[in-house]
């Protein structure tokens, strides 16, 4: 890669591409009127054009500032830059959709070894894990494409986009599954426009390159868009005297995005391993005993690593320090999450709202109830544990901070007295504070 960046001052705005893909780090581009020309190797196995969509989600993009950003976002091809400049309002929705996809990915994989971890302000967002054509990469492409369709379509229905509104094809009369007729009315979500813009923008790079990885990405992008179309429902409103349904007006509305995420997670679990055909024009199943994937299925090339041990070369963060459920037999259980290495246990104090009462008018007052709970975290390999211990990160309180745990006691003293009214069911728990058990 070569960059013509003589007059650009290094401003910490845009991150560089991963070095493992053959790129050398370059100074970020300034938005102060400078222009950078990037020469891209079209044989790269990863579509940085799509990764740029995820990178956009990390920027505080506003419609008024997209013109400058469009010229400086790494990985965009010409068609994407033109769409970015001509549709700044849609780019805002596209960024929201990419964030929606990332959040849903993290929810779906919250209890698995790979938990869809993102790297802050990194151009690849998910790190080197996206360099492999794995199941996880397939899911990321599908859920991100679905999130973009969902967000753009929602913005259409809200009247936030200049060239898009409610679905214009839903006019006249229609018939539901029971054969009952109704009149189209209201505002049907224009999924057609959201899907079309998503396809034009996200698929632009893959349609230009057309290598094996591009074919995989195109297939999974399409599967994500089809998932949004699948989860639409007919909503109706009755009109008539005394609540009678003399006239029924209906419209098509998208369902909550969580249903799309659940559906694509199921597709991830049943994804099909594929390889490119001899002509290099399409994908075929790697195992001839398996049925060919449909357009709604996810496909992948390479088997996933186990993600048990930290391995920067493949983007695996490992599971050292991850919280686990001692009693679960699923993927969130300590046996599976910790890869058989055992786990540590520490006692923490959890604070919950309780005995809430409504007071006129108009607020709710709650008491704080405190209780002592055991938190289990995975041990790491001996070498990795020594490294974390040297860095003071043998126990990661950030993993339990989002679960309502306020105080983490690592000393031998008892619980501190609180001036607020509380209910503490941890009598005698002071003898357990700071006690750290190790299970093998």
UniProtKB/TrEMBL annotation:
Function description: Ligand for members of the frizzled family of seven transmembrane receptors.
Protein name: Protein Wnt
Region described as Disordered: 382-440
Native source organism of the sequence: Batillaria attramentaria
Pfam (any one): wnt
The family this protein is said to belong to: Belongs to the Wnt family.
Primary site of residence: secreted
Keywords: Developmental protein, Disulfide bond, Extracellular matrix, Glycoprotein, Lipoprotein, Secreted, Signal, Wnt signaling pathway
Compartments it resides in: Secreted, Extracellular space, Extracellular matrix
SMART domains assigned to the protein according to its UniProt record, in alphabetical order: WNT1
């Amino acid at each position: 890669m070569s960059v013509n960046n003589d007059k650009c001052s290094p401003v910490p705005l845009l991150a560089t591409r991963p070095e493992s893909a053959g790129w050398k780090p370059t100074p970020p581009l300034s938005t102060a009127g400078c222009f950078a020309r990037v020469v891209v190797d079209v044989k790269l196995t990863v579509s940085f054009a799509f990764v740029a969509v995820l990178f956009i989600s990390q920027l505080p993009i506003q419609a008024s500032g997209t013109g400058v950003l469009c010229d400086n976002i790494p990985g965009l091809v010409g068609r994407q830059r033109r769409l970015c400049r001509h549709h700044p309002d849609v780019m805002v929705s596209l960024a929201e959709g990419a964030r929606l996809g990332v959040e849903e990915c993290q929810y779906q994989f919250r209890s698995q070894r790979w938990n869809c971890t993102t790297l802050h302000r990194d151009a690849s967002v998910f790190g080197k894990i996206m360099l492999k054509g794995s199941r996880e990469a397939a899911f990321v492409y599908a859920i991100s494409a679905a999130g973009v369709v969902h967000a753009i379509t929602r913005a259409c229905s809200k009247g936030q986009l200049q060239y898009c509104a409610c679905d214009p094809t839903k006019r006249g009369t229609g018939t539901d599954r029971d054969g009952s007729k109704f009149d189209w009315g209201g505002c049907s979500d224009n999924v057609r426009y959201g899907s079309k813009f998503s396809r034009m923008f996200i698929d632009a790079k893959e349609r230009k390159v057309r290598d094996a990885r591009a074919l995989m990405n195109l297939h999974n992008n399409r599967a994500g868009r089809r998932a949004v179309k699948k989860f639409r429902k007919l909503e109706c409103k009755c009109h008539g005297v005394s609540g009678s349904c003399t006239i029924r007006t209906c419209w098509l509305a998208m369902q909550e995005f969580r249903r799309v995420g659940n559906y694509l997670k199921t597709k991830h679990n049943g994804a099909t391993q594929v390889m490119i055909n001899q002509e290099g024009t399409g994908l075929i199943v790697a195992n001839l005993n398996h049925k060919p994937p449909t357009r709604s299925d996810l496909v992948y090339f390479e088997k996933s690593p186990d993600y048990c041990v930290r391995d920067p070369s493949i983007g695996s963060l490992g599971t050292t320090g991850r919280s686990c459920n001692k009693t679960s037999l699923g993927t969130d259980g300590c046996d599976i999450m910790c890869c058989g290495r055992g786990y540590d246990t520490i006692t923490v104090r959890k604070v919950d709202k309780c005995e809430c009462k409504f007071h006129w008018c108009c607020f709710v007052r709650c008491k704080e109830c405190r209780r002592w709970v055991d938190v289990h975290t995975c041990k790491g390999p001996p070498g990795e544990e020594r490294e974390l211990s040297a860095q003071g990160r043998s126990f990661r309180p950030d993993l339990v901070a989002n679960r309502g745990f306020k105080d983490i006691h690592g000393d031998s003293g008892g619980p501190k007295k609180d001036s607020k009214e509380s209910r503490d069911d941890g009598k005698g728990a002071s003898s357990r504070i700071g006690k750290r058990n190790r299970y093998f």
